[in-house]
Amino acid sequence: MEDTSNIQQKVPVSIQDELRTSYLDYAMSVIIGRAIPDVRDGLKPVHRRVLFSMHEQHIGPGGAHKKCARVVGDVLGKYHPHGDMSVYDALARMAQPFSLRYPLIDGQGNFGSVDGDSPAAMRYTESRLARVAVELLADIDKETVDFSPNYDDSELEPVVLPAKFPQLLVNGSGGIAVGMATNIPPHNLGEIIDATIEIIRNPEVTLPELMQHVHGPDFPTGGLIYGKSGILQAYTTGRGSITMRARSSVEKTHKGDREALIISEIPYQVNKARLVAKIAECMKEKRVEGISEVRDESDREGMRIVIELKKDVFPQVVLNQLYRLTDLQTTFGVNNLSIVQGRPAVLSLKETLEHFIEHRREVVTRRTRFELRQAESQRELVEGLGMATTDIDRVVATIRASADTDEARTRLCALPLRGLGEFLRRAGRPDEECEKADAAGDYFLSERQAKAILEMRLSRLTGLEREKLAKEYGELAKTIERLRAILADQELLMNVIVTELEEIKTRFSDERRTEIVAAEAEINVEDLIQEEDMVVTVSHAGYVKRTSASIYRAQRRGGKGTLGMEAREEDWVSQVFVASTHSHVFFFSDTGKVFVKKVYEIPQAARNAKGRAIVNFVGMEPGEKVAAVMSVPRLEEGRFVVTVTRRGQIKKTALLEYENYRDKGIIGVRIEESDQLLVAALTDGTQELVIATRTGMSIRFSEEQVRATGRATMGVKAIELEEGDEVVGMGTSGDGRDRVLAVCERGYGKQTPIEEFRKQSRGGKGVILIDASERNGPVVGVAMVCTTDEVLLVTDKGQMIRTKVSEIRETSRNAQGVRLMNVDDGERVVAIEAFAADSDSSESTEHAEGATPPEASAGANGHSADPTPEA
């Protein structure tokens, strides 16, 4: 018969089940054995093995530094067979003062830098345990923790370290496992210990009470934490987002009239070299205005990044731009995941500390039991030696009478000794204990005591040594009583833990490095910038600048004007508007995209300066050009953006549709290829619109005739144009603006009551606005005004004049008007801007330079009560 005993049975297994089981085993192996720290000692296996190996090799703070290669080799050979770099990287990180709040390794040599430099090779660097790391390993030889076999069962390694302080929170941890990750920020040692003691003394303590001790993370690189909501969420749920910022200050440069931003601390885990490079990149690409130079002046004294600013640049504006575009501001995503009783768990602050306290309770209990056994064992020997010295004559006689050591030990164990009470009295024991010993009679030695007596040196028989034995016995007896009391009383046990925590705090605690700033106290750039009206000019070639409105003094109608921008043959001012420094500015490109900036972000320049290229300032794509510019004081509900093209297409979109703008722009309006966006205005949805054409035609209709649509729409027809005609501007009613101001190229213009323009339906041909005769030239702009307004006119040669509307003659629709500005031959008016005059402007017909600026009211075409542009 065939033997089938050695034939293996093949069992069919589903590949899905096998993959699922194998993958889960792998995942748990990574989670438990590699990437996630233990909640008790806050260490991953590789860090624990490095520290334990150095402890075994006695590479401690009291000795010399040893080569890191020696440590790595020992760890690899005994405990961690996963590659030398994995061990060395872990060792190096524990020595980096910018990675750990309290480094566990005292390194000597190059262990990397905050610039991202790698540590030197392990054969060049040396290390030893830091003093604070010794406290993680303290009492490990007193059976305080369990040991398990290493990978080949040749050595034993600790499952966890005794850890006298909450290392997990003190130094934090980070790691990516399979399907989960941990990211725990470091904290101040003193604060964490205070919170731990608070929980021990009051287990029902609430989180707000704990946060009186733990204010928040304390990063080794310092910096600032903005807001406490993220901290509170992280401490409550174990997950949260914390905003970190660099610490900065402002200094005067050697150039005297300029300032520099000094960065002395950066957010945790930010690469300084990359940060400096990013700032330089933003400066080079003009994404941040006002920076002239960036350099790193860091040395052994500390970090110092110098950002030199251009003249008259507000430092806080530049700093806020850098916060948005660089790692001067980052977030730390807290995920307090750790291994709890062999399973991964996300813990709150209190839960984390409670698990540590439970660990310390077990450690101190096991240590106390070990020390009790040791003390009782030692007391037994001392008691035997004390009895021998008390009855020494009989002991010596018994030993001399014995043939060998074994016989002597046996005879000593059977020898009744006297004088136990006398020995206890010498040891200072209580009278009742001594009397009880006297009443007990003879004392018999144990085998251990007999062996110790046989090995005792004759010098122990002197009177001084007998007193030392008695004293040692008394001390051991007191120690045993104390240890038994600790084991019998949980309150005493917890007091031991508190005492040790207070000792750790006294030895290693230091001041906080990271400052926590309440979010409400965050500096608002606009609060630091004086609110004033600025004249924003846009040139035909696409340059923009802002100038204080006060420098354009009011002149009588018909004057020559003031040079507003140095004109060039290939460029001239095409758009102008007045707006507050706090207002938004919408830049519409010819492709229909819109870019949003604040007025204070627009480069300020002299009245005759060229300005800055808009395409670089707002980040337009190559080939894009500015088609319309609009000022928006606030992004609020109930307001609309109305756009008009040169071919008479009009579109209305809710202002809040533009709320979520981006640096790279968003879609503002769809434009036909043969058309061009002309003007954009801000309305309230109920205003009347007056649209003017180049040949002097106009149409008046209600804004309600234009249905509001989304941003990416084309709109509807506003006016029927004759062949060769085009739209040049739009005015909007409201706030008492009941007159239509029209201006022509040759500097002539007029104001006409709006009643003379009959209301029509949208899409009609309209009526005459002004006689666009040869004397006047074509119409360049239209605005809705009132008699108290002022108007600013700009020519293609850069001349500007500011005059009062009340000085402009009121005429009928088809009249030619009066001279508003004296222009030279070959010069022409290209833009107008109307605005409300302030009270001072009414007192004098001519302002000196530096007069109080006007309050912007109506755009160049009278678009709204808020300053808006004319194209």
From TrEMBL:
One MF annotation (Gene Ontology) recorded for this entry: DNA binding
Catalysed reactions listed for this entry: ATP-dependent breakage, passage and rejoining of double-stranded DNA
Domain called Topo IIA-type catalytic: residue spans: 36-528
Segments of this protein annotated with the region Disordered: 836-871
Cross-referenced SMART domains: TOP4c
Keyword annotations: ATP-binding, Cytoplasm, DNA-binding, Isomerase, Nucleotide-binding, Topoisomerase
PROSITE patterns xref list: TOPO_IIA
Highest rank taxon of the organism: Bacteria
Principal place of residence: cytoplasm
GO CC annotations on file: chromosome; cytoplasm; DNA topoisomerase type II (double strand cut, ATP-hydrolyzing) complex
Catalytic residues as annotated in Swiss-Prot or TrEMBL: 124 (o-(5'-phospho-dna)-tyrosine intermediate)
GO BP: any one term: DNA topological change
Entry's localization field: Cytoplasm
Note: Few gyrases are as efficient as E.coli at forming negative supercoils. Not all organisms have 2 type II topoisomerases; in organisms with a single type II topoisomerase this enzyme also has to decatenate newly replicated chromosomes.
Family, per entry: Belongs to the type II topoisomerase GyrA/ParC subunit family.
Protein name: DNA gyrase subunit A
Source organism per UniProt: Chondromyces crocatus
